[in-house]
Amino acid sequence: DVKVTQSSRYLVKRTGEKVFLECVQDMDHENMFWYRQDPGLGLRLIYFSYDVKMKEKGDIPEGYSVSREKKERFSLILESASTNQTSMYLCASSSRQEQYFGPGTRLTVT
Amino acid sequence: GENVEQHPSTLSVQEGDSAVIKCTYSDSASNYFPWYKQELGKGPQLIIDIRSNVGEKKDQRIAVTLNKTAKHFSLHITETQPEDSAVYFCAASTDSWGKLQFGAGTQVVVTP
């Protein structure tokens, strides 16, 4: 089975802090994605990567950056966390079109 | 870009009844339409998908239909059970990288 793991299930950070969310997949997938999930808005794509060191902006990249130094690992970075970034963050990976999700990280910024 | 609308936002059904969730998409180039189920505290899980060269697909109690002309697709769950209670998301994709555009989700509650 495909396994996508995320470094934390719950995270509480202060405004202005730099936040790192880590995602690891074990299926040698080329593509990896970061989404945020908010009630009534579904899943919105922040960034995705189709290869090591490659990244593309999604629909809501403002305030975020990403890093993919190894094929299995994709990191989401909040350079200076703000309260409007309080949300559920989901990582996914895929080799073609079928995406497999991790359990999510619920981030609260106070 | 692609826009996916999903209805209804909440759906309450009696155990044993059928549930239907409908989605519309805007980009006629979309060619892949997955459905995800998200249980409380978990990430979304792919339950069924359909590609644009197919009109209907079934897997036990769930089925998906696609109408390319009208640009809408639907999820049908028959003989609903309490474990079907979850949030369901539809999505559409136009590219081979698998970038998905999601609907807003439907909260399904199956009451015994």
Explained architecture:
The complex is a heterodimer of chains A (110) and B (112). The N and C termini of chain A lie far apart (37 Å). Chain A has strands at residues 4-6, 10-13, 19-25, 31-38, 42-49, 56-57, 64-70, 73-78, 87-94, 100-101, 105-109. With 110 residues, chain A is mostly beta strands. Chain B contains no helices and eleven strands. In chain B, strands 2, 4, 5, 9, 10 and 11 form a six-stranded mixed β-sheet that branches. A five-stranded antiparallel β-sheet of chain B has the order 1-3-8-7-6, with no helix packed on it. In chain B, strand 4 (32-38) and strand 5 (45-51) form a beta hairpin. Chains A and B meet through strand 4, strand 5, strand 9 and strand 10 of A and strand 4, strand 5 and strand 10 of B.
Write a concise keyword list for the protein shown above.
heterodimer, A: 110 residues, mainly beta, seven-stranded mixed sheet, four-stranded antiparallel sheet, 11 strands, B: 112 residues, five-stranded antiparallel sheet, 0% helix, globular
Sketch the topology of chain A as an H/E string, one letter per element.
Answer: EEEEEEEEEEE
Instruction: Indicate the low-confidence ranges of chain B by residue numbers.
Output: none
Specify the oligomeric state: heterodimer
Number of helices of chain A: 0
What is the CA-based Rg of chain A, rounded?
Answer: 13 Å
Question: Tally of extended strands of chain B?
Answer: 11
Q: What would the average pLDDT of chain A be, to the nearest integer?
A: 94
Biggest sheet of chain A: strands, sense, closure?
A: 7 strands, mixed
Beta-strand share of residues of chain A? over 45%
Helix content of chain A: under 10%
> Largest interface, counted with CB-CB under 8 A?
A-B, 26 and 25 residues
Brief account:
Chain A has no helices and eleven strands.
